[in-house]
Amino acid sequence: MGKYSGDESTLPQREHPEGYVPFREPQSMKSLAIRLNIAAIAVMALCFYILYLRTGRFVFSDWGVLAATAAMFPHEFLHAICFKGDVYIYQNLKQGMLFVVGLEDMTKGRFLFMSLLPNIVFGFIPFLIFLINPSLSFFGTLGAVSIAMGAGDYMNVFNALTQMPSGALTYLSGMHSYWYIKG
User: Fold this and answer.
1) CB pairs under 8 A, 24+ apart, for 68-76?
2) Rounded Cα gap, residues 117 and 106, in angstroms
3) pLDDT, tens digit, 9 for 90 and up, residues 25-73
4) For the chain, what are the domain ranges?
5) Which one of 70, 151, 165, 169 has the minimum C-beta count within 10 Å?
6) Taking the model in full, what pTM does it have?
7) Phi/psi at 21 (5° precision)
């Protein structure tokens, strides 16, 4: 694990293979942060609205928020265990950043699984537990907040689904994702 200073050149980079294509994503960290924060707020509002529709009351648990916050490092660990090779977890808590960089190739399916695994474990499963048993407001809040905190992961999923052709491999280099067809 390392502290990210904001200088992308300090992150692990790899040599790009022939024919690589960068994901179309915001190049400016400020632009990316604004988009992801707006998306996270919208997703969280939608989740809490669904909880309200299920119960007819506003559902909130301080412990659920605390647990979602405490799950930030385990969230990144779940991303990390999906890599076969070396993987690095970086943080800049002052800017609310926590992320994983691994340089290996991944199939689209494995990349999607890696991107979604922590959101399933900390977000969708607790959210569904609450929908099944609405007396468990802890799980509803944990799920709603954790689902919203996955906004960056959903952007990666969207990019992979809409930009990668069948049979392409993807990889991370620095803060960005790329794909290519192995030739």
Assistant:
1) 68/122, 68/141, 68/142, 68/145, 68/146, 68/149, 69/145, 71/118, 71/122, 71/142, 71/146, 72/98, 72/149, 73/98, 74/118, 74/122, 75/118, 75/119, 75/122, 75/146, 75/149, 75/150, 76/100, 76/118
2) 15
3) 887 778 888 899 999 999 999 999 999 999 999 999 999 999 999 999 9
4) 27-180
5) 165
6) 0.91
7) -130, 125
